[in-house]
Amino acid sequence: MSPSVRLQEMIRVIRGARTQGEERGVIQRECAAIRAQFRQADNGTRSHNLAKLLYVHMLGYPAHFGQMECVRLIASPRYNEKRVGYLGAMMLLDEKQDASLLITNSIKNDLSHSSQYVQSLALCTLACMGSAEMCRDLAPEIDRLLRASNSYIKKKAALCAVHMVRKVPELGELFTPAARSLLSEKNHGVLHGAVVLITELCERNPDTLEQFRKAVPELVLMMKGLVMSGYSPEHNVAGISDPFLQVRILRLLRILGRNNDTASDAMNDLLAQVATNTDSSKTAGSAVLYETVLTVMDIKSESGLRVLAVNILGRFLLNNDRNIRYISMTSLQKIVQTDHNAVQRHRGTIVDCLKDQDASVKRRALELSLALVSAVNIRSLMKELLLFLSSCPPELRAHTTSGIFNAAERYAPSQRWHIDTILHVLTTAGGDVRDETVPNLIQLITTATELHCYTVHKLYRALITDISVQSLVQVACWCIGEYGDLLLRGECEETEPVQVTEDDVLDALETVLQSHMSSPATRGFALTATMKLSTRITHNVDRIRSIVSIYGSCIDVELQQRAVEYNALFKKYDHMRAAVLERMPVIDKSSPGHTNGESAGGTIKELEPTKLTQEIVFPQEPSNQVCDLLDLLGGSGEPFQPSPSLSSTAPGPASSTAGGDLLDLLGGLDVTPAPPSVTVYEKNGVTLKLQTDTQTDTGMTVTLTATNSTDGDITGLTLQAAVPKSVQLQMKAPSGDVIPAHGLGQVTQTVLLNNPNKVSLKIRVRVCYTSQSSVCQDTVQIDSFPSTAW
User: Fold this and answer.
1) Cis peptide before 644 (omega within 30 of 0)
2) In sequence order, which residues have a C-beta less than 8 Å from that of residue 139 and are 6 or more positions away?
3) Distance separating alpha carbons of residues 157 and 142, to the nearest angstrom
4) What pLDDT was estimated at residue 244?
5) What DSSP designation does 395 have?
6) pLDDT tier at 493 (50, 70, 90 boundaries)?
7) Does residue 685 contact residue 744 with C-beta atoms inside 8 Å?
C-alpha cells in the first residue's frame, strides 16, 4: 500500500473539499491508510500518522483506534515520538479508558527522567487526565518534584498537585508542607502555582485553612511588592505588574480572611492600597480591582473600605465595556441589602443603565433599581421605572410590573398614589401582569373608602377609552358595579366633573359583553356589574333585565349560570334583590407584609349584626353540600353546580354553616343536601365509595357502596374493616355479594363507628371478590373522609 500523504497535504486536501461527503471520503481513505501502517512494524512514521489522526479527531471523526499507538509512543525513547504520544493520550484517553492504566508506569519513569522537558510532558499529561488510582500511585513523585531545584518543574508539579487534590482530597495533607515552602520562591510561575495549590487545599480542609492563616503577612508582603514594584517587561500587562498573580493572591486572601478578624485586619491596609493605586482604564487593572472589591466584601473589613469598594463598582458602571458594567451591577445586587446607603449614591448611574441596548445589562439594572426603592425615593424612582416600562422589551415586562407592584405596596406614600400607579401599569402593560393583580387591586380600592368616587371615575374613563386590556377592564367593571351610584352622581372633588348617564354606563358594559376581545372571565365581571347596577339606578332596570336574560342561553356555562340565577332573582325574589346585591364589605389582609405574587391568607372583616343578610357565601369544598340557587327557588328539577360566587368579588370564608346561612337568607327553605362521598377503591372495574350518612359528637355512620363496570357479574364480594383500638366498629350485614355488570346495580354495607376519644380516624378495608373465575383480594387504607370526622 502506498504511504499516506504528509500532514500538511492532508489538511490542505480536507480544507479544499467542496462538500461534506467529499471531506468524509478523504478522511476515510486516510484513516484506512493509518490503520494499515499501525499494524506494520516500526517504519519511522508512527508519530507522523498519530499526528494526522489527532487532526482527524479534532474535526470530530472517530479516532479511538489510535489509543494503543499513544501507549507505544509514550514508551518510546525518542523525544519527538514521546511528545506526540503524550499529546495523543491527553486527547484520546481519559480515566474511563482501560488504556490509561497502561501508561502509569511510563509516566512514573518519565517523572524521574534527566530531561526537564520529558518530565514536563509527564506532568502535563498526569494533570490533564490522571485518574484517582494514578494520582494515588504517583503522588510521592509529585511531592518530590515540588521540592526540586528547577523552577520550570516546580510550577508544573504544583499544577499537577492541584489536579490530584481535586481527584483525591485526602492527598492534600501530603502536599501541604511543600506548598508552604513554595511561597518563598522568587519565580512568578512557581508562586502562581503555589497560590493556586494553597487555595485548593484551604477550600477543602478547614484544618489546612487555619494553618495557612499564619501565612497572611507573607502574602500581604508579596502583594505589596507587586503593587509597588516598578516596570518589569517580563511581568507587565497593560501597566499592571503580573495581574494574574495579583488576582490569585487576592482570591486566596479572601478565603483566609473570611470570618476571621485577625486575618482581615492584617490585609485591610493592603486592600486600600490596591484599590487606590491600581489603574482601572485597562482590562487588567479592572480585573485586579474587581477581585479587590470581592475580597473587601467577603472579609470583615472596615466600613470605610466597604464604601471605597462600592465606589469602585460605581466607576465600573461608567465603563464603556458592557461586560464590566454587567459584573459591577451583579456585585452591587449582592451587597445592596448590607450597604444600601453606599449603593444609593450611584442610583442615577444605575437608572441610566436601563437605557442600555444590551438585554443582560438592562435586566441587571432593572433588578438593582427595584432593590434600591425605599420610602424616601419611591416617587422619583417609580417615575423612572414607569418610563422604562413603556419601552422595555416584552421579556422584561412581567418582571417589571411585578417589581413595581411589590415596591408600591411596601412604600406607597398614599393610597391615591398607590392606585394611580397600579392603574398606570395596567394601562401600559396590562397584558403582562400576573393573575393576582386584579383581586389585589380590588382589595386596595375597597379599603380606600374616601377614594371610591375618584377611582370609579378614573376607571370609567379608562374603560370607554380602551377595552383591550383585560385586567383593567375587569377592575373597571367591578368598580362600576359596586360604586355606580357615585359615578352617576358626578360629584367628585378629585377629578374634573363629568356628567355620566345611566345609558352611558350600560352602553359601556354592553360593549364589554359583546366585544370579541373580552375573555369569559371579563364577561362575567361585566354581567355581574350590570346586575348590581339594577339596585343603583332607577330608570333602566328593564334594560338590565333584558341584557341579563339574553345570556341565559350563552354557550359559556359559567356566564349562562350567572344569567339564569340573576333572572331568577328578578322573577321570583325581586324583593330580596337589593339585599343580595349590596356592596361588598371591606376586605383586610391578615399579614401586613403580604405582597403581590405571595400567598398569604386573607380574612373578611366581621359583618355587623344588621348586615348578616347582605352576602351570599358558597362553601367551595365540598361543592355539593349546598344546593343550587335555582333549586332553592323552585326552578328546574335538575340542579346545576353551584356558582363560586353570586357577585364578582372574591368568595367569602367557607364554613360548615354556609348552607344554613343561605337558607336563612332565602326564607328558611327546608332542603337537605345529599351526603358527600369519596372513591376509596377502583380496580378491575370494581369501584368502592365511602359515604358519611350521619355524624354525632362521638359516633358516625359510614356506608360503603360497590359498583361494577365490567361486562360480567362480580361474585363473592366480602368487605372486612379494621380501625384503631380506641375506636369501636360494628359492621351491618351487606345488601348482597353479587355486583351486577355494566353498573346496573350495587352492593352496600353500613359501618357504625364510635370514637369516644375523638382520635384521628383511619380505616383499613379488605376487599375480596371473584371476577372472571379469578379471585382478587386488595387492602386499602382510608385516611380522608368526605366531611370533618372529629
Assistant:
1) no
2) 164, 168, 171, 174, 175
3) 6
4) 92
5) H
6) low
7) no
The pLDDT tens digits for 111-128 are 988 889 999 999 999 998
- Summarised one tens digit per residue, pLDDT across range 726-763 is 888 888 888 888 898 888 889 999 888 888 877 778 88
| Contact predicate 194/184, CB 8 Å | no
CA dist 61 and 672 (Å) reads 78
Q: Where are the alpha helices (DSSP H) in 172-229?
A: 172-182, 188-204, 206-212, 216-228
355 secondary structure, DSSP code: G
Single-letter amino acid, residue 204: R
**Would you state the cell numbers that stand for residue 148, as one nine-digit string?**
526540586
Mean pLDDT for 301-327 is 88
Residue whose entry in the numeric block shows the C-alpha cell 351486577: 740
Average pLDDT over residues 198-206: 90
Dump pLDDT digits (tens) for 635-658.
433 433 333 333 333 333 333 333
Are the beta carbons of 251 and 204 closer than 8 angstroms? no
Residue 719 in grid coordinates: 368487605
- Secondary structure (3-state) at 719: strand
Q: Tell me if residue 339 falls in helix, strand or coil.
A: coil
Q: What angle do CA 115, 118, 119 make, to 5 degrees?
A: 85
Which region holds residue 520: left if phi is over 0, alpha if psi is between -120 and 50, else beta? alpha
The Cα 308–Cα 450 span in angstroms is 49
Cα–Cα distance list, 693 to 58, 420, 696, 701, 785 (Å) = 76, 54, 11, 6, 11
Rg (CA), the chain: 40
Identity of the amino acid at 577: R
101 contacts 67 by C-beta, under 8 angstroms: no
- Cα dist. 362→311, 325, 358, 441 in Å? 20, 10, 6, 28
- Rounded to whole angstroms, the Cα distance separating 578 from 571 reads 14
* DSSP per-residue string spanning 626-638: S--HHHHTT--SS
- What gap in Å lies between CA 430 and CA 517, rounded to an integer? 14
Q: Check if the beta carbon of residue 307 is closer than 8 Å to that of residue 342.
A: yes
Distance CA 561, CA 553 (A): 9
Question: Is 617's pLDDT higher than 80?
Answer: no
Rounded Cα–Cα distance for residues 267 and 286 (Å):
20
| Distance, CA of 577 to CA of 55 (rounded, Å) | 86
Cα dihedral sign, 771-773-777-778: negative
The reported pLDDT for the residue numbered 707 is: 93
Q: Which of 750, 749, 752, 751 is nearest to 699 (CA)?
A: 752
Q: What is the pLDDT of residues 658-671, one digit of tens each?
A: 344 433 433 444 44
CA distances from 588 to 349, 441, 442, 606, 647 (A): 39, 12, 11, 10, 18
Report pTM.
0.61
